[in-house]
């Protein structure tokens, strides 16, 4: 599907997102949408609230004001169980420091979300096999995370994030702990899998170069998104 066709379908709709920690207003009212299959980079200075945005999108932090609609579900109206279920089905997450479970092997880490989702052992085996191939880590399937390089660990983390086929990947500085060459390979993998499976992505990054895999960049500064508001941007795109 071309991105243009996907644009007609909104996956994530954020309206007036406001978040306060104590006395500090971190997010002052953010408005943006993410279309199905769209990859967005979220940039901004350290401490500007990028991780807070991801945590709100993932339902881990509750906004003080504003609405987040994910696949048409208003997160604020869901019970804790409903939110956990929606998150499990809809969102995969990749972190800077990989966060693999140290007591599980590579293939067990990748299969873990499928276990949580209650898949049969046969289905899990099959899907893990596919993913091991997709992220090219089959030769380390039985290894424990501590024996892997950073790049290998992040490839496993990407496979785990996409395990149950979520439509949205949240990535917080996914290459922040990798050297340039390894980071590039991980970015290429994320782009390739996002294209293949129409997975939308919101990727926090410090690195302007990493944005090459994204369709557009949101810049967070002083609690607001810089640049023209979403509606104007859409009109510009339509005109151009
Ligand atoms: N759970 C929390 N409790 C209190 N303050 C927090 C919490 N999470 C983040 N903050 C504060 O919110 C601001 C934005 O943090 P963060 O979203 O981590 O920024 P970034 O990811 O852009 O570096 C920082 O000032 C941080 O100290
Ligand atoms: Mg952060």
CATH homologous superfamily title: P-loop containing nucleotide triphosphate hydrolases
Largest sheet: number of strands, sense, barrel closure: 6 strands, mixed
Low-confidence stretches: none
* Classification by helices and strands: alpha/beta
Average pLDDT, rounded to a whole number, is 92
What is this structure's SSE topology?
Blueprint (H helix, E strand, L loop, with lengths): L2 H5 L2 E12 L2 E12 L3 E5 L6 H8 L7 E6 L2 E2 L5 H11 E4 L11 H11 L4 H14 L15 H12 L6 E5 L7 H18 L2 E5 L11 E6 L2 E2 L4 H10 L1
Parallel strand pairs: 3-8, 3-9, 6-7, 7-8
Antiparallel strand pairs: 1-2, 1-4, 4-5, 9-10
Helix pairs in contact: 4-5, 4-6, 6-7
Notes on the protein architecture:
The chain is an alpha/beta fold and 240 residues long. It has one domain (3-239): P-loop containing nucleotide triphosphate hydrolases (Rossmann fold, 3-Layer(aba) Sandwich), CATH 3.40.50.300. The chain has helices at residues 3-7, 50-57, 80-90, 106-116, 121-134, 150-161, 180-197, 230-239, and strands at residues 10-21, 24-35, 39-43, 65-70, 73-74, 91-94, 168-172, 200-204, 216-221, 224-225. The strands form 2 sheets. The chain has a 6-stranded mixed beta sheet. Strands 2-1-4-5 form a 4-stranded antiparallel beta sheet. Strand 1 (10-21) and strand 2 form a beta hairpin. Helix 4 (106-116) packs across helix 5 (121-134), helix 4 runs parallel beside helix 6 and helix 6 (150-161) runs parallel beside helix 7 (180-197). The protein binds adenosine-5'-diphosphate and magnesium ion. Adenosine-5'-diphosphate binds next to strand 2 and helix 2.
């Amino acid at each position: 599907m071309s991105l243009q066709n996907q644009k007609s379908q909104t996956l994530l709709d954020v309206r007036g997102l406001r978040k306060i920690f104590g006395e500090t207003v971190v997010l002052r009212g953010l408005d943006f949408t993410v279309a199905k299959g769209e990859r967005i980079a979220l940039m901004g200075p350290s401490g500007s609230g990028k991780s807070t945005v991801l945590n709100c999108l993932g339902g881990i932090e509750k906004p003080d004001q504003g609405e987040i609609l994910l696949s048409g579900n208003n997160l604020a109206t869901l019970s804790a169980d409903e939110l956990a279920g929606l998150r499990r089905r809809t969102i995969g997450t990749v972190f800077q420091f990989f966060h693999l479970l140290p007591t599980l092997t590579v293939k067990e880490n990748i299969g873990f979300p499928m276990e949580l989702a209650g898949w049969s052992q046969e289905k899990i085996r099959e899907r893990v096999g596919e993913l091991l191939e997709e992220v090219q880590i089959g030769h380390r399937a039985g290894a424990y995370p501590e024996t892997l390089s950073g790049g290998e660990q992040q490839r496993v983390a990407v496979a785990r994030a996409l395990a149950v086929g979520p439509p949205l990947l949240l990535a917080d500085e996914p290459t922040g702990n990798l050297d340039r060459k390894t980071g590039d390979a991980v970015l290429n993998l994320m782009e390739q899998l996002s294209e293949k499976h129409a997975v939308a992505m919101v990727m926090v990054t410090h690195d302007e170069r990493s944005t090459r895999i994204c369709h557009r960049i949101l810049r967070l500064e002083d609690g607001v998104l810089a640049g023209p508001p979403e509606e104007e941007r859409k009109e510009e795109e339509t005109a151009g």
